[in-house]
Amino acid sequence: MNRKVKTLGEYFKQIGEKEKVMGLKNATISPWCRGHSDISWSLSPGLFRKGNEDLRACETELLRDFKLKARPYIERDMPTTDLEWMFLMQHHGIPTRLLDWTESYLIALFFAVENHTNKKDGVVWLINPWMLNEKSLATRSILEPHDEDIAKYLIPAPKDSNRGDIYGEWPIAIRASMNSKRITAQRGNFTLHGKDDIPIEDIMDSTSCEKIVISGKDKLSLLKDLYTAGVSKAVAFPDLIGICEELKFRYSHYINPDNLDFNKWRDPNSFSKPASPYQSTK
């Protein structure tokens, strides 16, 4: 039975335990992690989730239209392969058959607790990417974006008589091209899913796929500790939107003074303790 994490100390203790179980304690790689704010969510990419059935049926057209319409807005590093186009689509919120992962335990925890108003237990999933590729491709190496094995997981080119068929079955682990600030900041990688829509947790055994349960009622406390430790919205999303979201969070007692969760921060130990706000000096 998984013990619910309530503090950063408990989280790192469980990380060490999971690394040992997965045989990665002294390995040259660390487990890949993914944080969910709801423990019930499965390890399936956006294109495979309930409600996106029509999008999945139009995947070829979706990719084609994105290529046609996005080019004028790409100022540098124009994608050269379908996989790179999919990275860009995923980055901007279009459901694809990619699933994001991080090599940072703290970034994964951040995503698990960021939506602290959701009081459901969260979860940080950990996988051994070597073992995933051994199961899917009979090789332990983690693929690079231009590896030949990736081709059978992509929509074939129009000249292919079997266009529209994807031959790859189970997910594969791929190192991301570090061509965006967000992927670099999040230490991102991806799993690319094939024609089989079985979630990763149903494919791998407990020595290759582990989870850490995050206490729902302690999300805000953990989020505050992460901010204090330097892991914030602006770190995970290094752009103006990320900075604005972080500032809104830090000054939320002014923006929304009736928010009871944030009012709990009005104590001597809060880094966001209000000064004397906007008082008249008459």
Q: Main attributes?
A:
single chain, 282 residues, alpha+beta, three-stranded antiparallel β-sheet, 6 strands, globular
Strand order of the largest sheet: 1-3-6
Stretches with pLDDT under 50, minimum 5 residues? 262-282
Roughly what fraction of the amino acids lie in strands? 5-15%
The largest pleated sheet is described as: 3 strands, antiparallel
- Class by alpha and beta content: alpha+beta
Secondary structure: elements and pairs:
Layout: H1 8-21, E1 32-36, H2 53-57, H3 59-70, H4 82-91, E2 98-102, H5 105-113, E3 122-127, H6 129-137, E4 172-175, H7 181-185, E5 188-192, E6 209-214, H8 219-228, H9 233-236, H10 240-250, H11 252-255, H12 260-263
Antiparallel strand pairs: 1-3, 2-5, 3-6, 4-5
Describe the structure.
The protein is an alpha+beta fold. The chain has helices spanning 8-21, 53-57, 59-70, 82-91, 105-113, 129-137, 181-185, 219-228, 233-236, 240-250, 252-255, 260-263; strands spanning 32-36, 98-102, 122-127, 172-175, 188-192, 209-214. The protein folds into 2 domains: 8-234, no CATH class; 239-274, no CATH class.
Task: Produce a short descriptive summary.
This protein is 34% helix and 11% strand. It has 12 helices and 6 strands.
